[in-house]
Amino acid sequence: MRNFQIVSLAFTASVGAFLAGFWFFRPVLGQASSPKSPLGASMVNAPLPVPTAIPQPAVRVPIPVWFHGKRFEGAKIDEKVVALTFDDGPWPISTLKILKTLRQNQIRATFFCLGYAIAEHPELLQAIFADGHVLSNHTWHHRYRRMSRTESAAEIDNTTALIKKVTGAEVNLFRPPGGILNNGVAAYAARKGYSVVLWTVVSGDTFRGMTPDRMANKVISLVRPGGVVLMHDGGGHHPTSVALPKIIAGLKKRGYRFVTIPELMDLQQEAWQMADLKESARRFALTMPKSPPTAVGQ
User: Fold this and answer.
1) Which domain holds residue 216?
2) What would the pLDDT profile of 171-227 be if each residue is shown by its tens digit?
3) Do residues 267 and 81 touch, judged by C-beta distance below 8 A?
4) I want to staple 258 with a disulfide (CB 3.0 to 4.6 A). Which of 107, 232, 235, 264 is the partner?
5) What are the pLDDT digits (tens) for 51-110?
6) Does residue 241 belong to any structural domain of this protein?
7) What does residue 202 show for φ and ψ, rounded to 5 degrees?
8) pTM for the complete prediction?
9) Of these residues, 121, 138, 232, 238, which one is catalytic?
């Protein structure tokens, strides 16, 4: 009986210690440096524009190693969290309106930026970065057609290099224009170690005739725990900046909190690790005797 109790206590203590350590070190679990994307001379079509502002120190937002070079389409978790993402910027007026709303609600989002838009408005990229949002790559020109490896490299590497030049930030997230995965660009990004990020909710802000109210209702009704919302701060006159306060208020009312894509990846990794731990505990329990062994001589 005593031997059985010792084994059981040892197992309980081991699991408890693991869980304590897991939660204590939660901020650094699974974080790894993203591979850099060096800019080869043969990949550059034209010289990069040089911003007038002094770049800030390099900042790297790590993502779990499990997502390097892999596709990410939201997290399969129970917690009510959602990631807001914005494509095609930075863009005059609309980007600043969106930043103001996010700032007022103390929300950090993920921005998938176009190289040519950054070249035209580096000050807007700096504003996004200064507010603590995650900067990500959306190619230089936003092309849908099939591209060679050299063209794909120029689209991605030039954009990443310019983001770093303007802000100091190093990029490890990529979103293919239109979500197209078979035109060569996403494959190149994956080979370079970027996580290829898609979405779970299409806001419809680029749809003809979309109004702010319809957009807000659509997003609020479609969001599920671990979701990723696709919106646009660039590309023209969209209802996004007007709909965003309503979206945030509606999701808060439903109990959601807002995270960046790297934070959502961390939550997914933690869920996987906890599931693995529970499965290990279950298998260990199956090896234990169902009743205390009878001591010899009793």
Assistant:
1) 58-273
2) 999 999 999 999 999 999 999 999 999 999 999 999 999 999 999 999 999 999 999
3) yes
4) 107
5) 444 444 447 899 999 999 999 999 999 999 999 999 999 999 999 999 999 999 999 999
6) yes
7) -95, 115
8) 0.78
9) 232
User: Residue 52 falls within a domain, yes or no?
Assistant: no
Please give the single-letter amino acid code of residue 80. Answer: K
Whichever domain contains 181, its CATH number is: 3.20.20.370
Beta-carbon neighbour count of residue 297 at 10 Å?
A: 4
Q: Are 41 and 161 in contact (CB under 8 A)?
A: no
Does the annotation mark 88 as catalytic? no
In a domain, 227, yes or no: yes
The dihedral through the CA atoms of 217, 82, 156, 89 has a sign that is positive
User: In the annotation, is 232 catalytic?
Assistant: yes
Is 66 inside any structural domain? yes
Q: Per residue, what are the HEC states of the chain?
A: CHHHHHHHHHHHHHHHHHHHHHHHCHHHCCEECCCCCCCCHHHCCCCCCCCCCCCCCCEECCEEHHHCCCEECCCCCCCCEEEEEEEEECCCCHHHHHHHHHHHCCCCCEEEECHHHHHHCHHHHHHHHHCCCEEEECCCCCCCCCCCHHHHHHHHHHHHHHHHHHHCEECCEECCHHHCCCCCHHHHHHHCCCEEECCCEECCCCCCCCCHHHHHHHHHHHCCCCEEEEEECCCCCCCHHHHHHHHHHHHHHCCCEEECHHHHHHHHHHHHHHHHHHHHHHHHHHHCCCCCCCCCCC
CA 48 – CA 46 distance, rounded (Å): 6
How many separate domains does the chain show? Answer: 1
Q: Which residues pair with 231 in a beta bridge?
A: 86
